[in-house]
Design brief:
This protein is α/β, with parallel strands linked by helices and 336 residues long. The protein has one domain: TIM Barrel (Alpha-Beta Barrel). Helix content is 42%, strand content 12%. The mean pLDDT is 98. The structure holds flavin mononucleotide (FMN) and benzoyl-formic acid.
């Protein structure tokens, strides 16, 4: 991953690089996410007659060819002119799901035209009518799930962006999926007053499965199930929100133990071994954020496809070495 990050830094405007790469505060949580994987050691099983591996995973009725999704990240056109549609084309080619950010810089309909299986990420909006408008649009575009980000009651304080004065998209770019019924782009509202009532409201507004993204506490995992949520994403927003928050991987086991819902995790997943460790510790699948943006910046859709194929090859390989035929064979005893 380091090589791609370095190449991305070399091609990107330094302001955009810092936006993509950076985190909140002292970036402790940003670092902790990767360090948590680096700390784990795999305890492989031998002579299991594994044979050909099978990486397929089904999530809410969609079959993925590998248990690795594309995390929602903002502003893909700042990374590469192909933008979100380039990323989606790679997801389609690889046979996985792209979660499209609320802050995508292309219309969801254009992203969907690539044929990719899409989920739509939603910042819960205090204006109920506007929120319902956004949900309808995502549904009509064919999105198969809603990912409701709950770790952002306020926007994270990111020193790198403050230093650059990077507060909004440059001219010629817009959050195309934040248009209201009159076609005007609205700012993404973050609202610390939001509560579980709001989750209930979103649920009442759609039949799509709802995942909550940004859950770290097992108590919230229990509440989520009680509120009819379909799945969870254990995440600290890639260290961009609450600096000092627990590493995503460290939070995973307790969240997975607290609920029967499918639990996904993101933050710091860089290699096939990381995917193996996350699945062994209770995840049904993982999502990848920054590496996708870096691959898009350096190679457009082909770059992102290459990244996904590399992760697939690595995961297939380490499953064989650890004595597992399929993701479901991975259990916590395989990780020390
Ligand atoms: C540049 C950037 C933009 C992001 N934008 C969003 C967003 O719009 N919505 C969201 O829910 N998460 C967003 N995230 C968080 C990612 O979905 C994900 O949680 C995180 O990047 C995973 O960590 P990783 O980058 O270490 O893989 C963003 C992350 C980055 C790096
Ligand atoms: O930068 C982010 O992490 C992010 O989530 C976001 C939220 C709103 C607008 C743009 C990006």
């Amino acid at each position: 991953m380091t090589a791609t990050a370095d190449r991305a830094q070399a091609v990107l405007d330094p302001v955009y690089w810092d936006y993509f790469a950076g985190g909140a505060g002292d970036e402790r949580t940003l670092r902790a996410n990767e360090e948590a994987y680096a700390r784990r050691r795999i305890v492989p099983r031998v002579l299991r007659g594994v044979g050909e591996r099978d990486l397929r995973t089904t999530l809410f009725g969609t079959e993925l060819t590998l248990p690795v999704l594309i995390a929602p990240t903002a502003f893909h056109r700042l990374a590469h002119p192909e933008g979100e549609a380039g990323t989606a084309a790679a997801a389609a080619g690889a046979g996985t799901v792209m979660v499209v950010s609320s802050a995508a810089t292309q219309p969801i309909e254009e992203i969907a035209a690539t044929g990719a299986a899409l989920w739509f990420q939603l910042y819960p909006q205090p204006d109920a009518a506007f929120q319902e408008h956004l949900i309808r649009r995502a549904e009509r575009a064919g999105c198969r799930a809603l990912v409701v980000t709950v770790d952002s009651p306020v926007f994270g304080l990111r020193d790198r962006d403050s230093r650059h004065g990077f507060t909004e998209l440059p001219a010629g770019y817009a959050c195309e999926n934040m248009r209201d019924a009159a076609g005007r782009v609205r700012d993404i509202a973050m609202d610390a007053a939001l509560s579980w009532d709001h989750v209930d409201r979103i649920r009442a507004a759609t039949d799509l499965p709802i995942l909550l993204k940004g859950v770290l506490h097992p108590g919230d995992a229990e509440l989520a199930a009680a509120h009819g949520v379909a799945g969870l994403i254990v995440s600290n927003h890639g260290g961009r929100q609450l600096d000092g928050a627990i590493a995503a991987l460290d939070a995973l086991p307790a969240v997975a133990a607290a609920t029967a819902l499918p639990v996904l995790v993101d933050g710091g997943v860089r290699r096939g071994t990381d995917v193996l460790v996350a699945l062994a510790l209770g995840a049904t699948a993982v999502l990848i954020g920054r590496p996708v943006v870096y691959a898009l910046a350096t190679g457009g859709r082909r770059g992102v496809r290459e990244l996904l194929e590399t992760v697939r090859t690595e995961l297939d390989h380490v499953l064989a070495l650890a004595g597992a035929r399929r993701p479901a064979d991975l259990t916590p005893d395989l990780v020390a």
